[in-house]
Amino acid sequence: MAKIDIIGAGAAGMWQAFLLSRRGHKVTLYDPAGTPSQNCASGCAGGMLGSYCEGEPGHEEARDLGLEAMEIWKEHYPHLKLNGTLVVASPRDVADLQRFGAVTQGHTRVGVDEISALEPALEDRFRDGLFYKDEGHIEPFVALEYFIQEAAAAGAKLVAEAWEETDADVVVDCRGLAARDHLKTLRGVRGERVVVDCPGVTLSRPVRMTHPRIPFYIVPWSDNQFMIGTTAIESDDRGPATLRSVTEIMAAAYALIPALGEARIAFMDADVRPSFPDNAPRIIIGKTQSGRPRLYVNGLFRHGFLLSPILAKITADYIESGAKAPGVLLEDNGEW
After folding, report:
1. N or C: which end of the chain has fewer CB within 10 A?
2. What is the pTM of this model?
3. What does the record give as the reaction this protein catalyses (predicted)?
């Protein structure tokens, strides 16, 4: 059994605390914003677990790790929704839908009747779509609350304070963009969302709408609430959502489901996702000031909830046996 300090209580840190405490380690989780933390990219997520949809060229690693992560989600999270993902396009953007289908796996082509059967709220407005039956979704803050409770039940200690070096055997650093004090190549990718209440609309799964400029998605949450998002902007700005982005998001939602025109806006917000230059996740093996191992779990880009379980497993396997995951778990050679 190792004594492990974890810094950061977003999706990555919460999964680390959950899995490591479940595997018998003595875990302390630190975050001055509290546990779970809303002051991070995980607090501004949609909850899509789209391993195939995220597997476009250049993101194959996210797809492959995501498929492994989905098995961990299925094993440990009883509230996981496994209804798949539906991708549609307006008639003028069918070419973009075809391109998306050509570069992703795990889908079947669906026509107007199948689309209407999957999601009656779409009625007969879309004649072509792609259905990724093995994908899922969660409600982010509900999942974070669940895993913090389970980690505590397994013995993890939760500390709402900034971390200062202790006598822990290992430190797992899940601070996201704040870790740029060591990981110099991290950059921010800003995401914005609008959350609405609409009792008159029902969706069973995330729906994505392809577009050559502004890809868009809507994720159903509980109590007739929907998360609507679209943006991926190269920026470190953690300020509120902008008028332009919110206007584009709401216009796309109305085009997808006109009944959403009667939705009430619950809130809108924005945050910044930590990303390495190639948008692939990494676990960087460094050291604390006293020479103990410090593992930087970072660069999850827009895949934070999807990939956190498999990164926690890779971390635990390394701590327990020294097992390496080529391409993911790397020695700190100063490049990062």
Report:
1. N
2. 0.95
3. a D-alpha-amino acid + O2 + H2O = a 2-oxocarboxylate + H2O2 + NH4(+)
